[in-house]
What does this fold into?
Amino acid sequence: MTGELTAALEAEYAAIFAYGPIGVKLTGAEQTAARAAEAAHRTLRDALVLALTGTGLPPAKAAYALPEAVVDRASALRVAITVEEKAAAVWRAALPATVDTQRRQALDALTGCAVRATRWRRFAKAKPITVPFPGKAPA
It folds into this structure.
């Protein structure tokens, strides 16, 4: 087990924090999606806390800075996309450092982030709506 899972935990804490201000600026189906996304990140966080307990790895640092101020629907959607893309990148980086159950967890988390980012792009009418190789930095 490596520090990549600690980084994933930091990303999950950051995502949970971000969905508070995001959800406040959304309504209807978008707000429901924000609540579901926050719940998904809470589930991932809880699983990571359990997995990292007793490993001797350093605890996750607080990472509560938003990429931009959430002042309206458009900024809420941009932040949601960014949060999911950043979390996807961290989970992608964790894949080669994991095995068995933790690799499955990392792959499922990466997939979930990619799906949520696509959903947010759809709400924002952003193009492209999806990206090849989620979590991979653009070339």
